[in-house]
């Protein structure tokens, strides 16, 4: 059972998402909150698998709530998915840096929304290749980082991280690298451990900031 926490200051939005989730046999909404502070308290109380958090809220916004969840060892199993009205805006990259596993636009189709919740619950990043390219074009147009952490990775781990940043699934990475999906997952997990990455989305952020991925390679 996938346990979901809804955090949004608009009751109508929360009720709409809850109505979609409640009819699914494998998903349970365990709590709702109207701001990030309340959401953090409920996350600690219920330990959900997924926290769907609005990016702009009173008291504590979605970015700060995400940062606090990511920093709390007791909430290591909580995957934060940011909800936004505007798609790729100035706040989304900050949310990913804070520890979000990805983001969803609120006008998403119901079937895509449910699929995304299940994807996030598996620990996969919610970053489609088209979104990845837009992130690269916007944020890596700045001077690249120093590549801190790259030296810790093997060549195969670097290759796997690059493919993660391009939006590929484990099966697609395995095909591209001519290895088994299990080996691909091992490379990714080792890279996450070495880079102290909370999830795949943080590998994507690392790839941008280190210069491992550039606009030409997306």
Brief overview:
The protein is of the alpha/beta class and 218 residues long.
Helix content: 40-55%
Q: How would you sum up the major sheet? A: 5 strands, parallel
Radius of gyration: 17 Å
User: Span between N and C termini?
Assistant: 35 Å
Biggest sheet: strand arrangement? 2-1-3-4-5
Give the tally of β-strands.
5
Category by helix and strand content: alpha/beta
| Poorly predicted runs | 140-146
Q: Helix tally?
A: 10
Shape: globular
Q: What is the helix/strand order?
A: EHEHEHEHEHHHHHH
Tell me the β content.
5-15%
Mean pLDDT across residues:
84
Structural commentary:
This protein has 218 residues and is of the alpha/beta class. It is built from ten helices and five strands; from the N terminus they run βαβαβαβαβαααααα. The protein has helices at residues 11-22, 36-46, 62-71, 92-98, 110-121, 129-139, 155-165, 170-177, 181-195, 200-210, and strands at 2-7, 27-33, 50-54, 79-84, 102-105. Strands 2-1-3-4-5 form a five-stranded parallel sheet, with helices on both faces. Helix 4 (92-98) links the parallel strand 4 and strand 5. Helix 2 packs parallel to helix 3 and helix 9 crosses helix 10 (200-210). It is globular. Keywords: DNA-binding, Phosphoprotein, Transcription, Transcription regulation.
Keywords summarizing the entry:
transcription, CheY-like_superfamily, 5-stranded parallel beta sheet, NreC/VraR/RcsB-like_REC, 218 residues, DNA-binding, 10 helices, alpha/beta
């Amino acid at each position: 059972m996938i346990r979901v926490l809804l955090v949004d200051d608009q009751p109508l939005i929360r009720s709409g998402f809850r109505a979609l989730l409640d009819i699914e046999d494998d998903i349970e909404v365990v709590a709702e909150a109207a701001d990030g502070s309340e959401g953090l308290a409920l996350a600690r109380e219920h330990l959900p698998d997924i926290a769907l958090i609005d990016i702009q809220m009173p008291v504590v916004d979605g970015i700060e709530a995400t940062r606090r969840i990511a920093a709390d060892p007791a909430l290591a199993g909580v995957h934060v998915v940011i909800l936004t009205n505007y798609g790729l805006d100035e706040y989304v990259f900050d949310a990913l840096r804070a520890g979000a596993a990805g983001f969803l636009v609120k006008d998403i189709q119901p079937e895509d929304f449910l699929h995304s919740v299940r994807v996030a619950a598996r620990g996969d990043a919610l970053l489609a290749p088209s979104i990845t390219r837009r992130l690269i074009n916007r944020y890596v147009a700045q001077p690249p980082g120093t590549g801190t952490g790259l030296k810790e990775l093997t060549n195969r781990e670097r290759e796997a991280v690059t493919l993660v940043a391009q939006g590929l699934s484990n099966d697609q990475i395995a095909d591209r690298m001519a290895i088994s999906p299990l080996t691909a997952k091992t490379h990714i997990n080792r890279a996450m451990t070495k880079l102290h990455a909370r999830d795949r989305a943080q590998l994507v952020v690392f790839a941008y900031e280190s210069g491992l991925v550039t606009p030409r390679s997306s």
